[in-house]
TrEMBL record:
Its EC number is 2.7.1.40. It comes from the Eukaryota. Gene3D superfamilies: Phosphoenolpyruvate-binding domains, PK beta-barrel domain-like, Pyruvate kinase, C-terminal domain. This is Pyruvate kinase.
Length: 575
């Protein structure tokens, strides 16, 4: 191995920076650029001095026998297969979320979805019993443990504003204009002609004759013609489809009729306790209008759960748009629930609002899911409309972290085909983004407030610039809590990001981050040992080979033997 290096040090508190202009570096295949700072001395009082060390190293990294290859190698079976067949450049970066329902809840169906690329399984607590949800969660965990998948579990709370109606049939029902339907809180088995039951006994409180009842954001529309006790008799004024377990809302004089219920109902809190007990990875909070709702849930989880469960806020109301930035800052991620959102704002505003939400989430380094009606026609038909494919492509072009199937997978007959459409469309659009060099147009708001935070952010920004400019095959990052991996993802690099972590919660949380492939491995305090071993593990699996170029970002925490924290970028060529 040939190596040439130069090291300089400077004090942040006024010493001149290292001067590289008069140095000539040799030509080679490995470049290492590192910054170090003393975290112990950082107090934020403006009087401490901080050591900054910069190093440039040039050479060629040869493959060495690792001292030990034993230990867990937690690359999931789907990523390993994609890497083997497609190579680094062929790996899809947009994550895929599937809603699990009666059409895909068997072990075989769940395995097929996982093989098809499902990264997150969503469970909608509006439907099904807790026993049913428990069975699905345990099947997914069993598939992860026994088959080598890495599918995280998300629970979507019902929300006190959500009202559900069910006509009792197993598939959608066509609603004809002029037909009269009865909406009732009475619970009965099976189905009755022109009768639907709601999930809320007080659903008709405050509702008046003449109010409009909108199904699933406009799939069909009714006008209240008669109110008898708690029951409503409604006339269809806009024909369409009535899906099983459909959402509905009331409108009066062009405005949504709202209740005064809190964001989380009593049932929601019980569902959250259930999710904690079952060890889910994400909670998606419905109808978040203020950041306080998210903060309250995160505080509750910190006292009740031993694992780090992420909280996503669903943006589905006009009020949530008014408070968007504070909600994004308080949350661990965002879901753009376009169905309900499209009821509250004009339809023509949905595309620009979606793009604005995605942009703000990327600026604040929070993953964002685009949801609702992506491939709605595939609930009943085996192929999507061309407009739906264009819609999916646009979300990918905007660099959304994830796309979500709802009814397409939960109750549709072609859930696996719908997932394949998302997979193929995402991969093609990502390829176009790279060909057009679109990631170079991304500008980012500075997140860090303290010097250590700013250094970490700059390291990751520079690493992505280097990776794109040098055309490396992959980025390796070693992370405890996933923060550096998320900063790399925020920049939407061309190569995939392999995030090595020894924390299971971090691994599952990273399943939602764009372009990140999380691996569960044993990490030591010796950064070079971690790098050497992970490279050898990948090589032993045949996943990297001679000539591959890997950019490595590492963060060495201070120890008794090495009191200086050291963050570095290295480019390694496998020979």
């Amino acid at each position: 191995m040939f190596s040439k290096s130069m090291v300089a040090s400077a004090s942040v508190a006024g010493n001149p920076p290292p001067d590289f202009e008069n140095h000539v570096f040799g030509v080679g295949r490995i470049t290492s650029l590192g910054f170090g700072f003393d975290r112990v001395k950082w107090k934020g009082n403006g009087t401490s001095k901080f050591k900054v060390r910069a190093a440039v190293e040039v050479g060629v990294e040869g493959s060495k026998k690792s001292e030990a290859l034993e230990g867990a190698f937690g690359l999931d079976v789907v990523s390993e297969g994609d890497l083997t067949v497609k190579g680094f450049s062929g790996m899809r970066k947009t994550k895929l979320v599937c809603t699990v329902g009666p059409a895909c809840s068997s072990l075989e169906d769940l395995e097929n979805l996982a093989l098809g690329g499902m990264n997150v399984a969503r469970l909608n607590m509006c439907h099904g019993t807790r026993e049913w949800h428990r069975d699905v969660i345990r099947k997914i965990k069993m598939l992860n443990e026994e088959k080598g998948f890495c599918v995280s579990v998300m629970i979507d709370t019902e929300g006190s504003q959500v009202q559900i109606v069910d006509h009792g049939a197993s598939s959608s029902v066509k609603v004809e204009e002029g037909s009269i339907w009865k909406f009732t809180a009475e619970h009965f088995e099976g189905s009755r002609p022109f009768t639907v039951q709601t999930n809320n006994r007080g659903f008709s409180e405050g509702i008046e004759v003449g109010d409009e009842l909108v199904i699933d954001g406009g799939m069909s529309c009714f006008k209240v013609t008669e109110k008898t006790g708690n029951d409503l008799h409604c006339k269809c004024i806009d024909a369409g489809l009535f899906l099983p377990g459909a959402k509905f809302s009331f409108w009066r004089d062009g405005k949504l009729v709202r209740g005064s219920n809190p964001t989380l109902s009593t049932k929601d809190w019980a569902d959250i306790d259930f999710g904690i007990a079952e060890g889910v990875d994400f909670f998606a909070l419905s109808f978040v209008n203020h950041a306080d709702s998210v903060k309250d849930l995160k505080k509750y989880l910190s006292t009740k759960s031993t694992k780090c469960i992420k909280v996503l806020a669903k943006i589905e109301s006009l009020e949530s748009l008014h408070n968007l930035e504070e909600i994004v800052q308080a949350s661990d991620g965002i879901m753009v629930a376009r169905g309900d959102l499209g009821v509250e704002i004009p339809l023509e505003q949905i595309p620009t609002v979606q793009e604005d939400i995605i942009y703000i989430c990327r600026q604040l380094n929070k993953p964002v899911i685009v949801a609702s009606q992506l491939l709605e026609s595939m609930v009943e038909y085996p192929t999507p409309t061309r407009a739906e494919v264009a819609d999916v492509s646009e979300a990918v072009r905007q660099y959304a972290d994830a796309l979500m199937l709802s009814g397409e997978s939960a109750i549709g007959s072609y859930g696996r085909k719908a997932l394949a459409v998302l997979d193929m469309t995402s991969s093609r659009m990502e390829s176009w983004n790279r060909e057009e060099n679109r990631q170079s147009l991304l500008n980012h708001h500075q997140l860090g407030a303290s010097l250590p935070e700013c250094i970490t952010e700059q390291i990751c920004d520079c690493a992505v610039d280097m990776a794109n400019n040098l055309g490396v095959d992959a980025i390796f990052v070693y992370t405890k809590h996933g923060y550096m991996a998320s900063l790399l993802s925020r920049n939407r690099p061309n190569p995939p990001i392999f995030a090595f972590t020894n924390d299971e919660s971090t691994r599952m949380a990273l399943t939602l981050q764009w372009g990140v492939v999380p691996l569960m491995v044993d990490l030591s305090e010796d950064a070079e040992f971690n790098i050497s071993r992970s490279v050898q593990l990948m090589k032993s699996k045949g996943l990297i080979s001679q000539g591959d170029v890997v950019l490595v970002v590492s963060d060495v925490a201070p120890t008794r033997s090495t009191p200086m924290a050291f963050q570095s970028i290295q480019v390694k060529t496998i020979i």
